[in-house]
Amino acid sequence: MAAATQARPAGKNVLLMGTCLCDAFYDDVARATVEVLEHLGVTVHFPENQTCCGQPAFNSGDWPASRKVARYTAGVFSGDLPVIVPSGSCAAMNFHGNPLQFEECPDPSIDSLARRTWEVCDFIVNGLGVHEWKGAFEKPTRLAFHRSCHSRGTNTGEAITALLSSIQNAEVIPFGQAEQCCGFGGTFSVTFPHISGRMGSLKLDHILDVQPDLLVSGDMSCLMHITGLARVQGRPIEHKHAIQVLRDTLR
Questions:
Q1: Which residues share a beta bridge with 84?
Q2: Taking a C-beta distance cutoff of 8 angstroms, is the pair 13, 79 a contact?
Q3: Name one Pfam family in it (predicted).
Q4: How does DSSP classify residue 135?
Q5: Please, is 71 exposed, middle or buried when counting C-beta atoms within 10 Å of its C-beta (0-12, 13-18, 19+)?
Q6: Which residues, at least 6 apart from 177, have a Cβ–Cβ distance to it below 8 Å?
Q7: Cα gap 6→190, rounded to integer Å
Q8: Domain with CATH 3.40.50.11810 in the chain
Q9: Least enclosed by CB within 10 Å: which of 3, 76, 182, 209?
Q10: What is the pLDDT of residues 15-58, one digit of tens each?
Q11: Per the confidence metrics, is the pTM higher than 0.90?
Q12: Do the beta carbons of residue 98 and residue 72 sit within 8 Å?
């Protein structure tokens, strides 16, 4: 997946796309995003009329409905400011999925949103130039980092790995089949729940094999799927979004 050529940050003002998962389940991820960006001197603006990136309809094949959502979102986030998203999946929808579904009916507003969208850790490293995180865990902490499928072909995985690895007392540990999908896949998990569950359980097996102290990802959907299976199976695992780790290790 190739990301659109992204515009460099305009000053230090950004727009935050909170995502549906932040709204429904992970409000602290949105809060952590604001706190980390403000710590880095960025002013965060939050359009209150934002809704969804359109990915559920897009993944289900209902592109007419998805295009309506995409046009609305492009209007909400119009202008020149970077659009920051604490989700590799939703960010990829803006800069990859939306341009794809508008190939036969180009829309300048869609192209503009694609160029200005950044996943938050990618923005921190490649937009703001922060390559090391001046944070620390209180004690040695082993981190298992799950790379989401939607962040493939982007700078997100490398950005998160660089930031996590630079935290004092943190060790990012490898685990088996790390590049394999966790099985969530948006509407895939609803359409094929048994396949999705088996994929997620296999991913969980490999993660637990290395006995991490914390599971980390840049995608809330992956965390929700993996940790939901872990809880149901009686194998709970501590977990955080990458941006929460950055916020919570600030010195």
A1: 16, 118
A2: no
A3: CCG
A4: B
A5: middle
A6: 202, 203, 206
A7: 33
A8: 136-248
A9: 209
A10: 999 999 999 999 999 999 999 999 999 999 999 999 999 999 99
A11: yes
A12: no
CA-based nearest residue to 177, from 207, 156, 148: 207
138 φ/ψ angles, rounded to the nearest 5 degrees: -70, -30
User: Which of 200, 110, 186 is closest to 150 using CA atoms?
Assistant: 186
In degrees, to the nearest 5, what angle opens at C-alpha 225 toward C-alphas 121 and 61? 85
Report d(CA 26, CA 239) in Å as an integer. 12
| Angle, in degrees to the nearest 10, between helices 63-76 and 108-116 | 70
Specify the pLDDT at position 6: 67
CATH of domain 136-248: 3.40.50.11810
Alpha-helical segments (H) within 40-62:
55-59
What tokens appear for 161 in the block?
């790995």
Tokens encoding 99? 């341009």
Token pair, residue 135, equals 């944070």
The owner of tokens 């990618």 is 122
